[in-house]
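Pair request: fold both.
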Amino acid sequence: MRAGIWGAVLSLSVVLFGWVMMRAESVSAVIVGPTEGSAGDILILDASGSVGDCFAWQVSPELPGEMPTIEIVDGGRRCVVCSVTGRYTVFLAVSNAAGVSLARWTVDVLDDTGPPVPPGPSPPVPVPPSPPGPAPDRFGIARVAYDAAQLVQSPNRAAESAAIASGLEGVAAAIAAGTLRGDQEILDAVLSSNNQALGASVPLWVGWGQTIGERLRTIYMSGMLKGPGDWAALALEVAGGMKAVK
């Protein structure tokens, strides 16, 4: 349909109805229908509520090529709007002996995905979980033992760590029972227990032993080891660190 349709409508009303000589009571163009839809929907504009005898429709813009933008049905009283994404303005002219009435209707056909969603606030940066290992302790030696053990290049590191822990728990039990008393006696028992736990793997654990020795020297010089009970607690803390090694 082109712009000349309006002239055709006017001419048709004059020729067929002689509107100058035979005036009807009224004429009105009324459009009822959706104002928006999604691509693929069936969008129907209804002009059946209009008062008139002739109906003419026009739409802007029109689709390119041979594809119709609107399809007139029901004797011109309804039209189907294409469901291709875009904004379409539909014009209706209704005429009778009383004259011509015009109406306009706009339909927005949205993409299936809808309008773009504005970006929201950036999600909070997750707090990384605490690294695995022993809980904080009194002497701060459990974490030292655990971290140093992670550097040991032994294929049996986890099992050997568990053996060290078991031996140290035995030393702590002996201290609690009063079997071990003096500092040197306790240190000798710890050394013997570790050697027994590691066996042929002792050379692989030399670095671990040096790290523990340095930490033990710091603790000893600070005066924190005042008696057998402190030594027992220290042995259990090292055992706790070694149990966490996997």
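--- second member of the pair ---
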Amino acid sequence: MFRSTLRSQVTRTPTQRDRDVLTRLPKSLQYDGRSNWSFFRNKFEQYARMNNWSEAESAVCLGWCQTGKAVDFNAVLAEGRGTVSYTDLVQRLQERFGAMELPATAQGRFQVTHQETGESLDDWSDRVLTLVTNALRDLPPTYATEQAVARFCQGLTDKEAGKHVSLQIPVSMRDAINSIKMYSYISLTPRFLAAPRVSTRNHGGFTP
């Protein structure tokens, strides 16, 4: 249903440019309804300006960039309406996904968040940085970074690794990630290599 909705946004016969616009969309230009809407919107609009997209092209591409909850919401918007303009689509997405949380709510969510099973270090760090942006948006960036790094370490699935890296007081998220990777590498390396057995009968020679 969603793809037919998108096709309905272009009433004329698609041209080669229309096809090029869609096939050249970066894979990283996606919004799932969970990540930071404002960040995605800025990135999307910068890309649209660089490629001189029209309003109609922007509307179609914005639809194709959506996944998860965002695509479900878009389908509901378009149902019974056919064409949804770019301006209207952005406004409705802003209302649905861009509303700012109350500071107390955002801070509470930030304090209890933790790494999910199967979540990579990079994805976990991205999620922490997104949450801290809302939770501590009125505080100095340096303080927000310190809190994000601390939450990253405390919320790790590997509690021992998190405790070890926290004591090193990493100065940035990248520093914390590198320290975690180093700790994991060292932890998996045998501390003691099996020493060769010495035969007392061969005057210190190695046993076969």
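Observation on the second member. The CA atoms of residues 153 and 162 lie 4 Å apart.
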